[in-house]
Amino acid sequence: EAEIKKDLKACKKLDKAKNKPQIKCHPTYEKIFNVYNGDTFDRVILPVEGKGLWSTMKGFISLASDGQTVKGLTFYSHGETPGLGGEIDNPNWKKQWINKKVYEVTGKDKRVALNVRKGGAKDADYDVDGLSGATLTSNGVTYLVEFWLGEDGYKPYLDSSGFKGASAGQATPKPKQQAPSPKVQPKEEQPETAQPENSETEKSGNTVEPSEENTQTTDKKSEENTQTTDKKSEENTQTTDKKEE
Fold it and tell me: 129: buried, middle or exposed (CB in 10 Å: 19+, 13-18, 0-12)?
């Protein structure tokens, strides 16, 4: 968190030729989100942003554990025209992104091929239909996808061993240091040694019973002593009375 905040204050500016999405700050660090299905790494969620017609569109793109297959795209902030560029929020348009491919590989060349195509999708693997009457918004989405999934974005990370799905696209187990899912080890099945110590209330409850027994014993002894004293007192009284007679 500290590195991210420090980075945002001193973020570097991009060359205009590279900065098609017109982002104001090119961060060195970015917070991403890994999603697990049970104990298995399922997908990664990556923050993205870029200029549309009227606004900066901010959202997330989700990729499967292979780092190549799109699981979804959504925007949480934008000011595009309702009914035109605002159709980036249309559920039917967002469904088109699911299972699209990001990279086209030719020999050693690996480039971002995923795009929003004006006039309708032609390539079933890489194309998403352009938005009618919203060419600049459509281009803006293409530019932000190309940038953030390209060399100046997340591509170096997705290609590295640091990415949990980088090994031949295989899902990998959760790191051992992470806490197990409640489904894996339900609370009621945990061994007694794993249970927390008795609370103060429980400890107090445990001391009540012996205290009560001690009180009863003390009362009993006190009662016996009283009876003995009364008996002696009675005997003394009788002796005194007899002498007086």
Answer: middle
| Residue keyed to tokens 């009375």 | 241
Q: Are 71 and 43 in contact (CB under 8 A)?
A: yes
Torsion sign (Cα): 183, 188, 189, 194: positive
Given a contact cutoff of 8 angstroms between Cβ atoms, the answer to whether 61 and 75 are in contact is no
pLDDT digits (tens, 9 = 90+) for 219-242: 544 444 444 445 444 444 444 444
CA distance 142 to 138: 6
CB atoms within 10 A of CB 158: 20
Give residues with Cβ within 8 angstroms of 67, minimum separation 6.
Answer: 44, 102, 158, 159, 163, 165, 166, 169
Strand 115-117 and strand 127-129: the pairing is parallel
Kindly report the average pLDDT of the chain as a whole number.
76
> Cβ distance 49 to 144 under 8 Å?
yes
Residue-level pLDDT at 46? 97
Neighbours of 187 (CB within 10 A): 8
Within 8 A by CB and 6+ apart from 182, the residues are: none
200's tokens:
């103060």
**Which pLDDT score is estimated for 121?**
92
Instruction: Determine contact, residues 38/157, Cβ cutoff 8 Å.
Output: no
- 25 vs 206, more confident: 25
pLDDT at 3: 74
Please check the confidence at residue 4 and state whether its pLDDT lies above 50. Answer: yes
Residue 230 is encoded by which pair of tokens? 């009364």
